[in-house]
Amino acid sequence: MTLSSILLALAFPALYAILSYLGGFARIARLYPVLNPPTGDGFYFAWGTINSITFKRGLDLVVGTDGLYIGPIFLLRLLNPPAFLPWDRVIVAQDNPHFVDKAIITIPELNIKIQIPGKAAKAILSSASTFSRVAESSLVKTAT
Fold it and tell me: How many whole angstroms from its chain centre is CA 131?
């Protein structure tokens, strides 16, 4: 194995960690640390966007009745621990661009927006509708 292949193997997780940090993952985890193991419907290697940073197959999600467990996939957790977002502390909205369901989760305290598409979005919207402040549409910025 050459030095360049070793550097390349280390560069990807390091770059991912930096982008996750810049996207707000560390701030989310500080405000909402995981206190108990998550229970619920798991969506592993999921897609999502935190602020403007897109994680293609880079998120682990567990949608539960109490909230959303969100974290980078296990191999890429450097600098970015997982977080648990209680439904009563976030605003959840639905968006449907191009016939793909998308859940938009806003964390008002941090001014961070998380977008999750597909099957995970349907689970989030279903669970959050019972326990969360659910916005009428993705255009709604705050709940009343």
Answer: 18
Tokens of 118: 């597909």
Strands 53-63 and 112-117: unpaired
Q: How far is CA 123 from CA 61, 82, 86, 95, in A?
A: 10, 19, 15, 14
Domain ranges in the chain?
Answer: 3-134
What digits encode the pLDDT tens for the residues 102-134?
A: 999 999 999 999 999 999 999 999 998 766 565
Q: Under 8 Å CB-to-CB from 73, ≥6 apart: which residues?
A: 44, 45, 57, 58, 59, 60
Q: DSSP string spanning 68-112?
A: EEEEE-GGG-TT---EEEEGGGSEEEEE-GGG--EEEEEETTTTE
Residue of 72, 70, 82 lying closest to 40 (CA atoms): 70
Residue found under tokens 């938009």: 104
Return the CATH number of 3-134, one of 2.70.70.10, 3.40.50.2020, 2.40.128.20, 2.30.29.30.
2.30.29.30
